[in-house]
Amino acid sequence: MFEKFKNKVLQSQAAEHGEAHVLPLKTYFAVFGSLLVLTVLTVLVSVIGLPAPASIIVAMVVAIIKATLVVLWFMHLKFDDRFYSLIFVISIFFLVLFFVFTSMDVLSRGQVNPEESFFSQDGTLLREEFTKKK
Amino acid sequence: MSQQSSHAATAGHHPKYLAHHFESMDQQNSSGKLGMWLFLAQEVLFFSGLFMAYILARIFYPETFLAAHELLDWKLGALNTVFLLTSSLTMALAVRGAQVNSQKQMYWNIVATLVLGAAFLVVKYFEYSHKLHDGLLPGHFFDAAKAMHNGVPANIPGAPAIFFAIYFVMTGTHGLHVLIGMGLMLWLLVRIKRGDFNSENHVYLENVGLYWHIVDLIWIFLFPLLYLVR
Are the beta carbons of B225 and B57 closer than 8 angstroms? Predict the structure, then answer.
């Protein structure tokens, strides 16, 4: 049984590493074309001027799609050893963790202890030392 | 020279570029790539600090960001986006050139990538010198009076000095990465000319490619965040 498993692993490794996966040229140009179209889309969305929360959400979704295209095709993660994908996904996981928890702290501090809040009741910034000139 | 190395590639168990501490070219190449991906993970986390600073500054001063980004030229930003996306394409094609064992494709695609990287920095130079001239600078170097004198509407609410601090640190760090990438590409060109790379041995080329794509990736986020905020 173990022998069978080992063979299976060796086979899949051979399939993964054996021959470098050469993509047809048109794939690269299709990815590049999509990236350009998405760039035009981001600019258009900004020029049209969507209302406040929608515009940043659209911009970020488009940027994430573009990043995914680059990572999967230009950086070959779609075709490469899955272990590289794992490393990359882990780095993104910690990035999101960092962003979410730090933002949560800053935004919700006042709810725990009003004296520690960055903002007053009406939402204006309290920590004037950030803007003060020397 | 390239004839020789491609001969070595087919010669069997011991290609001349296989280091003695690796069992096979496969193992050597995947170890190199693993190292590169670990470095790229570090790059993501390194830039995450700068993006976090951006997020916090935007939470604190939303009105500053809305007003201050008008002082950046989105057309130049868009032009630079096109330069970097195209350079990513040529970089990917250079790696493909290595896979199909074409010295010519490798060489000229790297040259194209290098030129596009340089074009990016030239545009960035014009943007920076403009800002310098108008006093749109980070921290206490920010000079609204000078900007107004030059006809720039710099009467921005909140903390424009912080916006420009973030603008310069983020684009500056990114620009430094572009510069380092260009240095690496010069090195690649020397090695390609020497005939070091072929379809079996091109992990250096691939790794510089991965690095270059990450630099492109960061710009994909910087461009809408800095130039197109609404």
Answer: no
